[in-house]
Amino acid sequence: MTRDAEELLRSVLADPAYDVTTDGDPLAPVWGKARAIRRRRALTAGGTAVVVLAGVAIAGVAITRPDAKDGPAFITQPSPTASVAPPSEVPSSAAEPSQPVSSAAVLPAATFHRTAVHIEEPFAYGSTVLGLETGEGGPTSFRVVRLDTTTGQVTRSAVVAASAGGIAAADGMVWVTSKGTDHLLRFDLADLSQLPDLVDPHGKLSGPIAAVGNAVAAADSGGISILRDSGTQTALPAPGRVCQLVTAVGGLYVVGGPQGSACIQATFVHTASGTGTDVADASDASLGLAGLVPDATGFWVEQPTGTMGYYEHVAYDPSSSQPPVVAPDHISGSNSMSVSIADGHAWISDPGLLQCAGSDGTVLWHKDLSADAGPAHVFSTSSGTVLVTNTYAEPFDTSVCG
Amino acid sequence: MKDVDEQGRQVFEAFARARIGALLRYGHLLTGDPHAAEDLVQSALAKSLAAWRRIERDDPEAYVRRCMVNEAISHTRRRAWRERAVDVLPERPVEDATNDDRAVVMRALAELPPRQRAVLVLRYYEDRSEEEIASMLGIARGTVKSQASKGLAHLRSSLDRMELLA
């Protein structure tokens, strides 16, 4: 029988198996989510109004006659949007920033060309920013991307892997895991030319990878292996499922959980001794933990709550015996939030919004970004600090965070 | 942003209840996962409720569908190379799925970028015209044609590889 793709597609799409039945009222979560959207927009509108009012106030002072008794009306009678107060149920972390919003956070330099970039989950390394880019073929097509932070130019190199699982930089090389195989792809950091693959003797790679000194730690079917260019390997204990590996001083943060479950726990593993300390648990075991990013006093970790989520800071010193301490406040947003650390501050982004936060979980500053910018990251590199979004990169002045 | 009044909320709820079945199915075909579909539809409806005063007189369903595709695109960009928080469990054992037309087609469909997938679903499941798809997704008619053509070519090539087409 001859069949064509259109006929087959039509019949498969019509299959009743793709009807979705729900246990409860599928509309029930909609009301709460809509309230959260309204709160976030009110917060953003309030911040924008502060900028507008500040500008108007300056202009008002300049044009007010010295003998004016009451001052300009627009200062004494601000518009209702300017005084939008956060609703009482909003966590204090999401309250209006204590610092005034600056419209001059981004400082374009003459030599820096605002350029299109599409770097997924980028990270800073030396003078560059590296990451993976999903190509035209969708989630199975990847390229290694490098951003020159002095010019804003992007260079790319085709990745041969059918599916890239993670990326790290160590020992002068960019390492990319070929998910589901035992091959680690390697690229010369200088020109991104491909080097011979390294084969993990402990089994298939599941994806997560992190730099450990001049080696890389990679999750594989045997647990976690530390692999070196010289061929020397070390095995570390791991939970049944490793979801994220994160480089830290003295060891690695491992986000994982039992096989078949969500990534419910974060553990700090001392690479020298192989011992581990549990440092964070998921607030919702069915959703698990998402991105973990270390800073000078501990780490930030994302707790998803469905389509929404929040970042919380955990104070933790791996070299001491003190237990981890979760900050009193957290930063709420969608489940597309991300965090990067630069110049001692945490930069938390939600598509269309960039915030700076203190380690107590309070928002210190925020700024609207263009809606198509996607997740934004702030990186300090040896050649300057840059703001990297899904659509552009440009120099960034971190002093706005105070 | 002005809040929706009680009457607007009732109209929204009536619209949402009438269309949620179709939207969930659309979400399932977009994501390949019924749970992700639920999440996607709820987020899109929440955004639509927040914008209800602006969209109710035009075409609210088009707005919801556009939100769903945009959300699916940003979700794919963010999560593509990272582990997902929860495993997507196959609906049937792998050994059966390899011989199942439905599983093979859905796997091939899942490899497409979300917008291409959305165009194919609207075209071949809902039988929407190019104009309707363009309006629903907020893209030009020419883009609908090119996305459908690219998506179909990719699908055909995947199916050829899997020897499902004679």
Topology as H/E string of chain A?
A: HHHEEEEEEEEEEEEEEEEEEEEEEEEEEE
What structural class results from the helix and strand content of chain B?
mainly alpha
Counting H and I runs of at least 4 residues, what is the number of helices of chain A?
3
Task: Please give the order of strands in the largest beta sheet of chain A.
Answer: 1-2-3-4
Using the alpha-carbon principal axes, give the shape of chain B: elongated
Largest sheet of chain A: 4 strands, antiparallel
Rg over C-alpha atoms of chain B, rounded to the nearest angstrom: 17 Å
- Given as residue ranges, the uncertain stretches of chain B (5+ residues, pLDDT < 50) are 77-99
Rg from Cα of chain A: 24 Å
The chain pair forming the largest interface, with residue counts per chain, is: A-B, 70 and 59 residues
Distance between the termini of chain B: 56 Å
Mean pLDDT of chain B, to the nearest integer, reads 75
H and E string of chain B: HHHHHHHHH
Task: List the quaternary state of the chains.
Answer: heterodimer
